[in-house]
Amino acid sequence: MNILKFMKRNWLRVLYPSRWKPFLLILMCLSGSMIVYKSVIVSKSISTAINLSKQNYERFVNETSEGSTTPSTPKTTEKSQYSNLLENECRFPSLIPWEFDIQHLSPVAAPILCPKNMSNLATFDEDGYLLIHNDLDENFRRKSFKNVMCNVSKLVGGLRPNQKVALEIPMNLTLKMTSKTKINVDQFVVRCYDKLKENGTNIETEVLIYQRGFAGFANQETNKPTLAKANPKAPSLVVLVLDSTSRNQFLRHAPKSWSYMNQLGFMTLNGYTKVGDNSGVNLLPIVAGLTAETQVGEDGRGVLKKTEVPVQHEKYEHLWDLFKKRNCVTMINDDIMHPSRGLFAYHYHKGFAKPPTNYYFRPFEIFNVKQQVKPKLGECTVHGVPVMTQHFDLFEKFSRAYKDYCHFSFNFFTTLTHDHAYQLEAVDEQIRDILETFNALGVMNNTAVVIMGDHGNRIGGIQHTYTGRIEERAPLFSLYLPEEFKKAHPEFEKNFNFNANRLTSNYDIYRTLKEIALAGQEDKEASKYRGYNLFREQVPTNRKCSEAGIPENFCLCMQKDPLPKFNQTSKQYTLLKQRISSKLKEYGCINITNINFLEDILQTHSISDMARKGMRSPPANETQIPPRMFKEQRFIYTYITTTTTNEHPLRLMVEVKYYPKEEVMDVISTPILVTEDNKPIGISITDVCKN
């Protein structure tokens, strides 16, 4: 009830306070009851969220464990082969996919259905033939074609940021209905006209009835004899970047793709953290090992000078340049969303003087977003085709067309997920289906596949939540390696899985993907770039964000953030003991009557105030350092001793997530063994109970 309205209605009691006291007491009691009630409801909601996440996560693991070479959370007693996140000095915040504070911001997204505004009169097939035909849809089927004629114009230009219009070069083609014509250009526009009589006259006017841009892979017959053959020991590489997609978001919104990726043996980095705010500053380090941002740590390797910005890409070597040196066919498939944007034509970038790869579809993209996408920045074209479908088609058809040849593609898709990451769910089945197609056709036999995000969601409402701040900084990175490649280099898979649970950044990704691009050749310029080759090197457990090139405002290594009165006599400590005892009981081999908690006062950890506030850049001075902020989630790392049911002594580290406002706790990871000085030894309680 609104207190002011209540007072207005009871103004006599306001004037006579003695009569007001009973009402005041009632109001206070009601308010207190509502607070308690709300707290109980929220606590139950968090518990429900935790249970829901566990159920879904266990379902994913159960569905994908059979035949999978890489479980979602590697568990092994061999420290040289795998690792554990808890071994790091950097304490990462652990999230469940369906955290309580984001549930209202993570709706279900159905597949996109687009209405169309004109007849579909043309089709461009995979063999490079343009077909002019009638529309099968009765609502758009034309009754007469006597006067219909179509022409074709090649699309070029638009390679620089200030070139916001694609140029059209007319081709000497006039096409009639039911014609089939070979088109030997990569991107073009088709326009069809009909001669219609004006009302009440015999005067005929030529009217545009159809226009559409197309993109494909021309001159394959000429290209293929010059290309290197597909080779699993020197594999092709395709990279799919989904804008604003964190690992946690992908788990939440693309469960079918995630499940199939695990079946195929994709390996996922769990400690991967972004190094910049938006797409360009995060992806330049990945494709070229460079950054235009302020230097973070080390000696300035890979940091461009102010005079080198905007970036003139022709001066630097990119991953696609390395593949071209191997006689591989290359493609950049960039969903620009707006004529003035695009990954390499926005912010720090200067675009290109000429197409950087064999297939570069920016002219098609500019025509599309200016002429075909309705409304502007929308997700549908006037032909009833989702924008994302066009990009996924190019992604899939490129690898299908060149599956027997060495190829490289870099695909960056932004329209669907840039503002609302949950919309990834609309293409979950499409991603899975493409991977199934690749697997069925043998593409995966000779091709390394990367599925990743540039960062998490940084635009939508979700990024203001505690969970959102973490997700924004922790993008997805998953890698598939062909089986023959892994057999030829068994240490590559072993080291990558080891590093999956270490603090990593974009610079490590570049060094690692460059290993694939070089096809076994020595990286003679390795000393020029920062980062670790995750195939050949093992990231140390004491790595800091500054050493990885991660600015302090994006760093997710948690800080000690103690709470008062968090000692053995507090109710929180009692709750902690209950949760840990309950968790250990689940393993069946632990003597829970013999648990000894080693600390008198519990230390809690939380993300930094800069991360919680969502700062886009590091503080320039002390005045920009945010004040201490409330942390909705905290993490406790406590040490206990106990024994197995066979009386073998155990010393364990247990990770507990604590929601202080709601007084909810949960053990969120498998406890691991530690030494007498509390150093993790890479053996989980699961391993102990198996032996």
Automatic annotation (TrEMBL):
CDD domains: ALP_like (cd16021). SUPFAM superfamilies: Alkaline phosphatase-like (SSF53649). GO terms for cellular component: extracellular space. Pfam families: DUF229 (PF02995). InterPro entries: Alkaline_phosphatase_core_sf, DUF229. This is Sulfatase domain-containing protein. It comes from Bursaphelenchus okinawaensis.
